[in-house]
Amino acid sequence: MKTYPFSPLLGANLCLSDNKRVNAFGKAIKETVTEGDVVLDVGTGTGILALQAVKHGAKKVSAVELDEYLSNRVREIARRNKVGSKIEVINRDILDIDSIAERIDVVLMEMLTTGLIEEAQIPAYNHLVENGIITSSTKIIPASYETYAVPLEYDFREYGFDMPRAKHTTGEGLIRKLSDKKHVSTVDFDGERKNPCVKKSIEYLMKHDGNFNAIGLTSVARLSNGVSLGESTWINNSVVVPIDRNLDVRQGDKVRLNVDYVMGNGFAKFYAEATQNKSQN
Predict the structure, then answer these.
(1) pLDDT tens column, 241-268
(2) Closest CA relative to residue 140, chosen from 152, 128, 157
(3) Cα–Cα distance, 256 to 276 (Å, whole number)
(4) Residue ranges with strand state E in the chain
(5) Burial, 27: exposed, middle or buried (Cβ in 10 Å; 0-12, 13-18, 19+)?
(6) How far is 69 from 44, CA to CA, in rounded Å?
(7) DSSP secondary structure letters along 89-155
(8) Are 29 and 50 in contact (CB under 8 A)?
(9) What would the pLDDT profile of 71-84 be if each residue is shown by its tens digit?
(10) pTM for the structure as a whole
(11) Tens of pLDDT along 152-163?
């Protein structure tokens, strides 16, 4: 029996309800897929991206989905939309698939969470590269993915308790941004294997006084040449992460942030530490 650390049904339906996400991927698919392409849709969920690929000319889509219920529903959805002969649903973990019968022209990979930290986008991508399913000629959506970090003063109090932890947020709890956001990482999905480890040291100039106790992570997915997707309702939400040791900072201080994490490995071993050099008055 398969067990999951999350609800596949909840996640798939939330993603489908995100109009900004669905429309952006639809535009990128229209821009990328050409008549007669063979497409691999990794983590198809409700099948919406597979349907869009067929709409824009794909002759076949192999739609991989781990969840049995969703797999069965996508088969029925494809049949109802008269594309059942073009969408093949594969009810397996992508990490267990070592080969695909046909050469893949386009890969759709929407296993995206901020920083590529929580979902298996990078492990799945590397697996496909290592097994020759993705090559340098494969067109991939997203084409690249960028992550940024900004120092924050953040109020983690909820229901009368102090509860610091990594959390997706739409702005609640934010006291102030202490500086400008800076680049942490860029992943180009270009057919080459990617190192999942991110280690970055970033220097910030503080623009406000405050208690530096967290960082805010944001991301932008470059889906294709003409389409980018930043924060939307259910993708790339800002993530607030407490740092290892709080710092009282003043405007003009220079602060160095060190971050260390593994993409696809969650926040259990995510590390963020800040050190400062006081401004001279």
Answers:
(1) 999 999 999 999 999 999 999 999 999 9
(2) 128
(3) 6
(4) 38-42, 60-64, 87-90, 106-109, 139-141, 144-154, 157-158, 161-162, 167-169, 174-177, 182-188, 197-205, 210-224, 227-229, 238-249, 254-262, 271-277
(5) middle
(6) 12
(7) EE-S-GGG----SS--SEEEE----GGG-SSSHHHHHHHHHHTTSS-TT-EEESSEEEEEEEEEEE-
(8) no
(9) 999 999 999 999 99
(10) 0.93
(11) 999 999 999 999
Cα–Cα distance for residue pair 51/84, rounded to 1 Å? 10
Smallest CA-to-CA distance from 41 within 262, 56, 220 is with 56
The closest of 217, 106, 219 to 151, measured between CA atoms, is 217
Give the mean pLDDT of the chain. Answer: 94
The Cα–Cα gap between 113 and 265 comes to 12
**Quick check: helix, strand or coil at residue 55?**
helix
